[in-house]
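A note on notation is needed here, since sequence and fold are reported together in a single record. The reader may check this reading against the record printed directly beneath this paragraph.
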Amino acid sequence: MTKILITYFALFFIVAVIFMGCSKSESSGGGTPTPPPPPPPPPPVALTCITSAISQVNSGLKSESGLTTFYDINLNVIRILVYDSASNIKAFEANFNYITSDSVRIDAYQYLKLDATKRVVLFVTKSDLKSPATADEYKFEYIYNSQGYLVTKNLYINGSKVPNFRTIYTYTNNFLTKCLMTAVSSGNLKILESDLTYDNTVSIKTWIYTFPDAFEGYMYYTALNFGNRPLNPLKQVITKIYNANGTILDTWTTNYSGYIVNSNGYLTYGVASGDLQQGIASFYGKTNFYYQCR
């Protein structure tokens, strides 16, 4: 009996020592265990944006002139409106009706044809939209290279089989650096010549086109698809206008600076000083740029 009791107390002592050892090990952390670190934040959402409005704010108080583009849910342009705030008048308005996937009607006298990538390949309009019934018919043809850049624009007047005017666009490292417009039907007389440089210290996403000869309507070049757009903003544009004798009639020199780019990489502000480039008339003076994103 005594031997059994001794064995029992020995086992009890061993179990007690083991229990105390385990308790000491579990409590050696000194309190509540440290929770694991939170997971890293998700990466920022990459937005796809396109120009929705451009306003010139030269007085610094309010917009003096504003261009607004309206889109449908698929980012197809459905309306362009230009409002002159200084005179409180609507300066321009165009509504776009998508008759088919490649045909867009603006009004009874104007329509667009698109290619499979929604680039404009044809624009039919009138020389005078205030008196369209008696105005000349203008047909603009747009030709793109294999890299997706607009390289040639032909203008046919009143059904001419030969282009009356042609513009050749020259690119350097995918930037439009020269624009040459000639009167083809008049022996290739030089009409307009532009040289463009860019600010390579500022990288941007989708912006406006920089075609200096966009006389058919600079408004359309802010929103419609005319191929690839520049990835740096303008630094300077010099445009020379010639007469029939090859003499320079006028020179437009415009410098661009003061750019502000938002956190998503879209240009929101810039300053154009000097002469007005009529083909890029939406960007003049102190100008704000706005975007619709998805």
In short: The mean pLDDT is 87. The two ends are 88 Å apart (CA to CA). Residues 49-293 form a domain with the Porin fold (CATH 2.40.160.150).
